[in-house]
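Form 7-S
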Amino acid sequence: MEQSIKMVLMKQTLAHQQQQAKSFHRHQALILMCRVYVGSISFELKEDSIKQAFSPFGCIKSINMSWDPITQKHKGFAFVEYEIPEAAQLALEQMNGVMLGGRNIKVVGRPSNMPQAQSVIDEIQEEAKQYNRIYVASIHPDLTEDDIKSVFEAFGPIRTCKLAQGSTPNRHRGYGFIEYEGRQAAIEAISSMNLFDLGGQYLRVGRAITPPNALHGPSSSSHMPTAAAVAAAAATAKIQAMDAVATNAVLGLSKLSSQLGAQTAVLPGLQQLPTTLGITPAVPAATIPPPGIAIPQQIRAPVPIIPGTTGLSPVIQQAIPPPTLINPTQLAAPVIPTVTADAQKRADQQKKQEELQKKLLEETEPQTLQQQENMSIKGQSARHLVMQKLMRKTESRVVILRNMVGVEDVDDSLQEEIQDECSKFGVVERVIIYKEKQSDSVDDDSDTIVKIFVEFTQMSEAEQARDSLNGRFFGGRLVKAELYDQALFDHSDFSG
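Output:
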């Protein structure tokens, strides 16, 4: 029973850890859904301009702009993180291509460094389709839930209307959720009320992409009290033991007849002894106890019988003692091998479970930012690892060539010529020729510069191409070659 309780407790612990890991991955996916990438930002714009442009879709948690330490200017892109995924989704749908600071900004999608994040995001969005919920943002601060409900009731019956509670009573945070009874009502509300002027502010309305209470985070209930866990494990082990006893009883009846026949064949002397001596056995064959209990142990070492000796009744009585005189320790002796095998099997299973749990705990890497910050490196190679990490370069497989050609030199054969030239340094995946205007004039090409992007398969190839091409003359022009930001290139942002 003690071993069974330990096994049940271990299974409960593993199940709890798996549930916690699933909840954590879901929470991490929701955080990723709150982020958007904004590219092609004018160098004249600052963080406050980005915040002002993206705040109508919901409360912004943070804006991260990448700055160049040499020029003291940002690199033309930023990551905007909202408090809820619906705000990020609306920004993706309504801000891509919008003119901001003289440039059409690019809002192309959310970055993801989490393995298999998309599958979790798809699962969350599929679950949200079960609810006819819509998301409403940019709500005037003086409007109440009743005001919003009265406006949106025109499209159909409303189940719930909830605005996000602000820091002070009777104040909301400018956004909320409305759940309709029917799906068609939600669709009509989105198409009719998006960008509707309500109280001097344009509403932003879209479909909810997360189920209710999705942002409550990982379960904080953690472990149940130790006493409750042990009691639950004991009850479970008791039920399992009762099931095992019942199963063994049914199996024992089926094995009894086969074991009885086998034991009788192994010990023929039990039947031959009375026949040889001409004496009727005192115990009928039908009443002989099952083999493996007691009598076979007594018959395996009988008292020697000398042929031709008279008065053999005492010898026979000594050879076959009455069943009532059997020692209880002898009753369990033949069963010991079976019990030992079962115990050994349970011990092996428990050992495997412990090794698996220990391995899982040891191999678990810190997932949250706080855990990664508090992670320590021990051992003699600690200093080497830290220095190696500090000296690590940002990996990029893209080389940008500036001032290589002018607008008038761009033709159909230019791309092929550049690819042939750069193939000397490695395998070229693609070449992109990008014309960037420096003013808003449409017809004037005098202020247009040409950027050439060459993507290799390896970073070492890109570095070799940069070192060889930088400072060379091409058609009377001094070429400037350098590594281009991989994140910008992957998002098709060539404005850097």
